[in-house]
Amino acid sequence: MITTAKILSFDGRRLLLEPETSIERELLKKQIGLVEIRLPDGREISNEQRKKVFAIIRDISLWSGHEPEYLRQYLTWDFISRNNIDMFSLSNVDMTTAKEFINYLIDFCFYHSIPTKDALLTQTDDIGKYLYLCLEHRKCAICNQAAEVHHVNRIGMGRDREKIVHVGLKAISLCGKHHDMAHRDEQALFTKYCIYGITLDEYLCKRLTLNTKQRG
Fold it and tell me: Which of 48, 82, 116, 200 has its CB surrounded by the most CB atoms within 10 Å?
């Protein structure tokens, strides 16, 4: 469920919100203890963001055979439906929504294994989210080919990978070629492509069949 809320007060640490719609049923039913706060910055979509959107939609068009304009309208509708937000125009949508729309398009490409002209690393507007999606879909963060997990936190000699709890460790998704390069000089590779390891959560570990609980 996504809703909006009015900010009643903020003392620098604690934020008091008043939801515009009732959320009692959702809170009680799902026992929610953590929420995500989205703060639109008020700035309009940049030309760079707009170019990224159209470039990704072009690639989806070439893969699917559908006209780009049809896809733009359909994917926009699907995005706003999933996120329960109002229809927007790429001429003046805010930067935050544009960034999330780009994330949605990248996720769409990964989910459907859509080939793209350029690696999606060059199209992302949210590197942290992109690196997460690469792990989730086992795509190389650099070239988007099928990938494996590269642990940034070194798992030392003699330690059993099957017994190690991977939750909280940092990792990145890399194909065989880039994985070998990372083992030779990880820092140089990360610096060249402006990438880094992200923290594995329980969802990613289960998705990647990595151990989440201590084993005897």
Answer: 200
DSSP state of 122: G
19/4 Cα distance (integer angstroms): 6
- CA separation for the pair 104, 175 (Å, rounded): 23
Residues in the chain: 216
Report the alpha-carbon distance of residue 120 to residue 46 in Å, rounded. Answer: 18
Using alpha carbons only, how large is the chain's radius of gyration in Å?
A: 20
The secondary structure of residue 12, as a DSSP letter, is S
The predicted model scores a pTM of 0.77
Residue 108: CB atoms within 10 A of its CB come to 16
Structure tokens at 43: 């700035």
* Nearest of 78, 60, 77, 80 to residue 68 by alpha carbon: 60
CB 169 within 8 A of CB 199: yes
User: What is the residue whose two structure tokens read 């604690």?
Assistant: 14
The amino acid that residue 28 corresponds to is L
Q: How many CB atoms lie within 10 A of CB 7?
A: 11
| Residue range 157-176, pLDDT digits in tens | 445 555 677 888 999 999 99
pLDDT for residue 98: 95
Confidence of residue 107 (pLDDT cuts 50, 70, 90): very high
